[in-house]
Design goal:
There is one protein chain. This protein is an alpha/beta fold and about 350 residues long. Helix content is about 25%, strand content about 25%. The chain has two domains: about 5-130 and about 310-340, Alpha-Beta Complex (Quinone Oxidoreductase, Chain A, domain 1), CATH 3.90.180.10; about 135-280, NAD(P)-binding Rossmann-like Domain (Rossmann fold, 3-Layer(aba) Sandwich), CATH 3.40.50.720. The strands form three sheets. Strands 3, 4, 5, 6, 7, 14 and 15 form a seven-stranded mixed β-sheet that branches. It has a six-stranded parallel β-sheet with strand order 10-9-8-11-12-13, sandwiched between helices. It has a two-stranded antiparallel sheet with strand order 1-2. Helix 2 (about 135-145) crosses helix 3 and helix 5 (about 205-215) crosses helix 6 (about 230-235). The protein is globular. It comes from Streptosporangium sandarakinum. GO terms for molecular function: 2-alkenal reductase [NAD(P)H] activity. Its EC number is 1.3.1.74.
Length: about 350
């Protein structure tokens, strides 16, 4: 391994925004190379995930959420893939090993060995370990129980989760897959590239009317990344016994008003009762054995071409604040990754 530099860079929250954060609310700061303590490995990050949920943490967080709020001066964090520089002798990690962990947004990180997941060659591209396909697969199979022939509606179909969910729903035997997105251009890509049969477009008229046209028989499954108007529309078009799983709340997270920590929505209770609609929150991923099974399945799909990994790579940590701004404003399709 080459000798690491004496200085590392990291992205910090510089100031709390009034509304959606912009690049000016962050700083790329220089800091001494982290010194790993007992039970820690020094990792040189190669990729990290830029994700919209950071908006909620910047806005003060949500009670019972698994991650703490971010305050001015705090370093951002998130999923990362990196290369081990050094590790304790009894850790099972060795210089050059690839690992995933949760201390992204910095060039070097001192990571608890217990927080490092060794990566093998199960995926053809190490960056694909940042794809939220496992989340989409678990939500569709365990929580929504997709069945052959189902009509599946994925709100936020062009996002990191949605861009995988449409493809996976198709592989699970869904009869019709519909996504929502923010522009006609993105809608075309959902249909031409990502397994969707049709798409509804935010701002192109009432979502409920659009959904009724493209799902004339109703909706059996909703994988909801958005909430708000799109959740209301899915309830209105729900078939008897429909199964809804709530994964995200972008309608609140990316609202230019408020803190991003709330996502209120008014639903028709009569419709839920009369059609016996089940709504549940995403139950989280399964354990390490489930991750191993998922990587084997996902790697096979990638190599066979049954699925693609839609993503955008932004080079250089100095461009990470801009990348986050672009995620907040829905500029890209798929997972946005900073490559170091």
């Amino acid at each position: 391994m080459p000798t690491p530099p004496r200085i590392s860079r990291e992205v910090r929250l510089a100031a709390l925004p009034d509304g959606l954060p912009g690049p000016e609310h962050f700083e790329v700061a220089e800091t001494p190379l982290p010194a790993p303590g007992d039970g820690q490995a020094l990792v040189r990050n190669r990729f990290f995930h830029v994700f919209a949920a950071l908006r909620t943490l910047i806005g003060g967080g949500v009670n019972d959420a698994p991650f703490p709020p971010l305050r001015p001066g705090d370093t951002l964090f998130g999923a990362a893939v990196g290369e081990v520089v050094s590790a304790p002798e009894d850790s099972g990690l060795h210089p050059g090993d690839l690992v995933s962990h949760w201390l992204g947004w910095r060039e070097y990180a001192a990571v608890d060995v217990t927080g490092c997941t060794p990566l093998d060659g199960s995926l053809p591209d190490p960056a694909a370990h940042l794809a939220p396909g496992r989340l989409a697969y678990t939500a569709l199979t365990r929580d929504a129980e997709v069945r052959p022939g189902d009509t599946v509606f994925v709100s936020g179909g062009g996002g990191a989760v949605g861009s995988m969910a449409g493809q996976i729903a198709r592989l699970l035997g869904a009869g019709r897959v519909i996504g929502s997105t923010g522009s006609p251009e993105k809608a075309g890509r959902l249909v031409s590239e990502l397994g969707y049969d049709a798409a509804v477009v935010r701002g192109a008229g009432p979502i409920g009317e659009q959904l009724a046209r493209v799902a004339p028989g109703g909706v059996d499954v909703l994988l909801d990344n958005v909430g708000g108007e799109q959740l209301r529309a899915a309830v209105a078009e729900a078939r008897p016994g429909a199964r809804f799983v709530l994964v995200g709340a972008l309608s609140g997270q990316l609202s230019p008003h408020g803190s991003g920590a709330e996502a209120p929505v008014e639903l028709d209770s009569y419709r839920l009762i009369l059609r016996q609609v089940t709504i549940r929150g995403f139950g989280g991923a399964d354990g390490p054995e489930g991750l191993s099974r998922w990587n084997e399945r996902f790697g096979g799909w990638l190599r066979s071409g049954d699925v693609v990994f839609p993503h955008v790579r932004v080079r250089g940590i100095e461009n990470a604040p801009r990348a986050l701004h672009e995620v907040f404003h829905g500029r890209h399709i798929g997972t946005v990754i900073v490559e170091l």
